[in-house]
Amino acid sequence: MARTTAEPDVVVLLQALARFASERVLAALDDGVRESDGYVFQHLIAGPQTSSALAERLGVSQQAVSKAVADMERRRLVSRRADPDDRRARPVELTDRAWSAIEGARVARARLADEFTSVLGDAGARRFERDVRRLIDHLGGAEVLARRSLRPPR
Q1: Which residues form the domain of 120?
Q2: pLDDT given at position 75
Q3: One-letter-per-residue 3-state SS of the chain
């Protein structure tokens, strides 16, 4: 029996849009910055965090965070140093290279938003953003976005 290829549904379309947009932003950044780094960055923008606090916020194991932090340290995106109040603790903090990547991503996302406005028009872009926010709220994600605590995919 032959199967026909159905048109992508709205979820696949949104996933594709997110993937293409993410690839565009990453292409504008220094080589070596990955999409997954952003999940860690969002929790370190406010200041250094312990690995255990990062694991809790990201919803992953301590082992997963230790592996990610070690990799990001090798790529000079984060550093760890002894906490003056607790020498056993080694909070993770963003490096200048990470801050440059964060700023670069902000600029790239703003340019991409301008492109969307160019394609959709001012009213269409505003409507699109409003509708996407409504859908995120409907799915229970508004608070996650407000707290900047989006978790990586499982």
Answers
A1: 34-146
A2: 96
A3: CCCCCCCCCHHHHHHHHHHHHHHHHHHCCCCCCCHHHHHHHHHHCCCCECHHHHHHHHCCCHHHHHHHHHHHHHCCCEEECCECCECCCCCEEECHHHHHHHHHHHHHHHHHHHHHHHHHHHHHHHHHHHHHHHHHHHCCCHHHHHCCCCCCCC
